[in-house]
Amino acid sequence: MSKSPSKKFAAYPRLNPLGVGRDISAADLIDQTFLAYNGGRIREAARLLVEKMLPNNGYVGMSLTGALTPAGLGKSCLIPLMKAGFVDWIVSTGANLYHDLHYGLDMKLYAGSPFLNDVDLHRDGVIRIYDILFDYNVLLDTDAFIREVIKGPEFQRPMGTDEFHYLLGKYVYERGLKLGLKDSSMLATAYECGIPIFTSSPGDSSIGMNVAAMSMRDSKLMFDVNRDVNQTAAIVYEAKSSKHKSSVFILGGGSPKNFMLQTEPQIQEVMGIQERGHDYFLQCTDARPDTGGLSGATPAEAVSWGKVDPDSLPDCVVAYVDSTLSLPLLTAYCLSRVKPRKLKRLFDNRKETYKRVRDLYLKIGTVSKIKTSRKVAKRSSSVGLKQK
Q1: Contact partners, residue 279, CB within 8 Å, separation at least 6
Q2: What is the DSSP letter of 346?
Q3: Which residues are catalytic?
Q4: Do 126 and 136 contact (CB within 8 A), yes or no?
């Protein structure tokens, strides 16, 4: 005998939405009408954020790819999330941080069209990012600001990108005060809130290009990428060892996605420290998984690498939605459903956090092959070499 309809579908809510009203909030719109397909995934993402990632002072890392800041999403979404204590650390492309400077320096960007003649734009000194337009002088003036700042004495040494962005953010913050600006720059907000921002490929942006140019003027500034790898791992280990949850909120994919996720293999596989992976994984992307690229790699695949805790896989969400759509919706949802959290100010304790994971690694780590808790065959470190 077949099951009755009530028993067969007991685990699933009925689809029977009300009509959309004229005064409905963004959060209620998501809860009441985003019921299936990628709309359903956005609702799952929103609830994952407010019900599991943000409660109990969990650590939330955010990775940023795609031209989000030129589109104004830094001011409209990222800064409100940062100031509410909903983002604790960030890995971003250098380009997003470079274009964030335009807003922090009160330069003008315009809503244009993707169908303009680019030969004409080039002739007229206009830069286009799809349907965003700005004057070529915006680039030149931003470059000049970077070079003037980094020639200062505090920049004349190697440093991690989190420290570099903190120092740069200080100058953007101070310039904003003189210009009468408020909440206009991610870098300035990160400085103000003690939020570390890393760049996984520091040479791959106009910020890195200007740093490179200044090296030919004998600037001593160099990016310490080793420090970045270990510092990000230290943040994650600090979260897990203090009995907090570690979550990743991934916008797009690319190098920042991997840089954020590789913190767990750095802890487990390389340092030999017992761990299980990030607790919660949320990604908004348009990348497909079947091409083999990291951008579209699923949380299930990340489990095999130790990047995500196997027990948390049912809670992982991938929404195949453009970040310019998903981020404003998720921002509105979080701000209306969760009270602001106390800022962790992770940058302020970066040295102590780093020292704790370094001391543990030097105590239990090894140069030879790491002993693993996984059920794999134990092999000698000479594997692959012909034995004579």
Answers
A1: 58, 245, 246, 247, 309, 312
A2: G
A3: 307
A4: yes
As a dihedral over the C-alpha atoms of residue 175, residue 181, residue 185, residue 188, rounded to 10 degrees, the angle is 50
Q: Is 95 exposed, middle or buried (0-12, 13-18, 19+ CB in 10 A)?
A: buried
User: Position of tokens 């915006």?
Assistant: 138
- Per-residue CA distances from 184 to 79, 194, 262 (Å): 8, 16, 31
Torsion of CA 155, 161, 166, 168, to 10 degrees: 50
For the four alpha carbons of 348, 352, 356 and 357, in that order, the dihedral sign comes to positive
Q: Other CB atoms closer than 10 Å to residue 96's CB: what's the count? A: 26
**CA dist 341 → 55, 57, 84, 86, 385 (Å):** 9, 7, 6, 7, 54
How far, in Å, CA of 361 to CA of 363, rounded?
Answer: 5
Q: How many CB atoms lie within 10 A of CB 381?
A: 9
Convert 306-329 to b/e letters by CB count within 10 Å (16 or more is b): bbbbeebeebbbbbbbebbebbeb
pLDDT digits (tens, 9 = 90+) for 255-306: 999 999 999 999 999 999 999 999 999 999 998 888 888 888 888 888 998 9
Q: What are phi and psi of 207, to 5 degrees?
A: -65, -50
The set of residues, in sequence order, having a beta carbon less than 8 Å from that of 264 and lying 6+ positions away, is: 236, 275, 277, 278, 305, 306, 307, 308
Pairing of strands 222-223, 280-284: unpaired
pTM listed for this prediction: 0.93
CATH number of 24-363: 3.40.910.10
Provide the H-helix boundaries in 10-92.
26-33, 37-48, 73, 79-83
CA distance 196 to 178: 24
